[in-house]
């Protein structure tokens, strides 16, 4: 019965909640692992048989396997969502996971690039002016200029672009739509790519903005590999990913006086606390610049 409820839960995430495929896959894997543990170790058949101790023992197992606290927290979030669904369906009377505290984690600030590093990354992307180079410049200008998530970049369709109005229509997490401004450099890069390069790449997918060498829609993995290879070419030794450009977008906006609420809307964050992370990065950057530039800030050696 537990496995049947798992299938119904996944259907609920897809149809009712409208979550992105990657999110659904992640939740599905986490819940499946959890239910397998319960059935294998305790032979549980119904959700009402699950106790708080069963959940704690599952989490303890993850810890014994060496799973880092962030991954455990992610799994705990999936379990909380699953048990909330069980409560909604009156399969249980309460959400037991709510009573279980998250494991303590050390908060690390996201990596961001400075303007010089952004320039070097773009220079590396320009290459020799091939079709792929035009595409790469457009990706970086759009990611840095509009702060898109990885999935938002790879899922972007030509009909989402409104270059004459300097806007792009984004479908984000939970199929929530938002309108994001396009910067002048991003518009130029997109016009160059769409007008001069994309057709030469023989796109098999007519709608996808960004395609790979084979003309297929660019994948998340392909985008990660691309950004890392360009960073290596640009001599950037920071551990960066496509999401680094989103972090940099938000941080640079705040450093230059943008309102926190506006940045929240541009990023598509539901909770402003998520956006506030970037104020910490901005303060750290200002402190570093102060200590480098002000003669009275230099520490004695």
Return the CATH architecture of the largest domain: Orthogonal Bundle
Broad shape:
globular
Mean pLDDT across the residues is: 89
> What's the count of strands?
3
Report the sheet with the most strands, covering strand number, pairing sense and barrel closure: 3 strands, antiparallel
- Helix and strand pattern: HHHHHHHEEEHHHHH
Strand numbers in spatial order across the main sheet:
1-2-3
CATH homology-level superfamily of the largest domain: Intergrase catalytic core
Question: How much of the polypeptide forms β-strand, as a percent range?
Answer: under 5%
- Count of discrete structural domains: 2
Structure overview:
With 301 residues, the chain is mainly alpha-helical. It has 2 domains: 2-99, Orthogonal Bundle (DNA polymerase, domain 1); 115-292, Orthogonal Bundle (hpI Integrase, Chain A), CATH 1.10.443. Helix content is 58%, strand content 4%. It has helices at 2-15, 21-42, 52-64, 69-88, 115-126, 131-146, 150-154, 184-197, 220-233, 242-255, 260-267, 272-293; strands at 161-162, 167-171, 177-181. The chain has a 3-stranded antiparallel β-sheet, with no helix packed on it. α1 (2-15) runs antiparallel to α2 (21-42). The radius of gyration is 23 Å and the shape is globular. The termini are far apart. The model has no long low-confidence stretch (mean pLDDT 89).
